[in-house]
Fold Hemerythrin domain-containing protein.
Amino acid sequence: MDIQRYYHDHTQIFRQIDTLRELSRAGVRENAVRISEIITGTASHIKFHLAAEDRVLYPALARSGDAQVAAMSARYRGEMQGIASAFAAFVAQWRVPSRLVADPDGFRRDANTVLRALFDRLQRESVELYPAAEAV
């Protein structure tokens, strides 16, 4: 299975997370507009990435004929629902520049939690799920 698109998406999302970290370190208040733009862009990118996984990757792995890969796919799909919900709440809260300006520490706290979970998940996909998908 050719999954280069998914790896490419991960690379872009990692860059966006890195940019958010850099902007946060440079000052949430001073970079509120740019941070909100990156959050919105990342949310859009993740939405399309998750849709592709849900419509193409997970069903293909479920039909792969490999019981271990199918079970792994189902587990990953289920886990992502919680992460996606947390990320959606993060976006809803912090996509507005005035909220970033009003509570930079709250943003940093939430970003550390949600973006770390997202980053860790993408890393696991790249190391475990995607190589399994390439092998079937």
